[in-house]
Amino acid sequence: PSRWRAVLALACPRCRRGPIYRSFLTPHRECPCCGLVFLREPGYDIGSYYFSYALGIASGLPLAIALLPLDLPALLYMGLLALQIGLVSPFLVRWSRAIWYHFDQAFDPR
Questions:
Q1: Which of 59, 62, 72, 90 supports an S-S bond with 77, CB 3.0-4.6 Å?
Q2: Alpha-carbon distance 1 to 73, whole Å?
Q3: Could you tell me which of 76, 84, 24 has the C-alpha nearest to residue 58?
Q4: Which residues make Cβ contacts (< 8 Å) with residue 107, sequence separation at least 6?
């Protein structure tokens, strides 16, 4: 499969078959199919924070724009945005980590 299909499937960046996650938020230490080590060293996942930040903005922006014409009080406006980001954050963590693994594998294959 293509790299983007593998990202969407949360599959290994090397073989694109093995799952990255063994449970909802817990990644495998290594790919069950090809043995690629996902968690190479302490702090390795910090790179995924940049992708998580970008995905958070991308997911909150449509709601922020949709709420603007309603002229809501600032506290309610920010509360609704915080609620939306809070609800999608667990999913963003999964996707950002998968994107990071694929990004890193593309530039530093192991």
A1: 72
A2: 47
A3: 84
A4: none
- pTM (2 d.p.): 0.86
Question: 7-31: string of b/e by CB count within 10 Å (b at 16+)?
Answer: beebbbbbebebebeeeeeebbeeb
106 residue type, one letter = A
Instruction: List the alpha helices (DSSP H) in the chain.
Output: 3-8, 46-67, 74-107
* C-alpha closest to that of 31 among 8, 10, 1: 10
- Mean model confidence pLDDT for the chain: 93
Cβ atoms of 61 and 53 within 8 Å: the answer is no
DSSP state of 69: G
Closest CA to 96 of 62, 47, 58, 63: 47
Q: What is the residue type of 96?
A: S
> Residue 53 — very low, low, confident or very high, per pLDDT cuts 50/70/90?
very high
| Class of residue 38 by CB neighbours under 10 A (exposed 0-12, middle 13-18, buried 19+) | buried
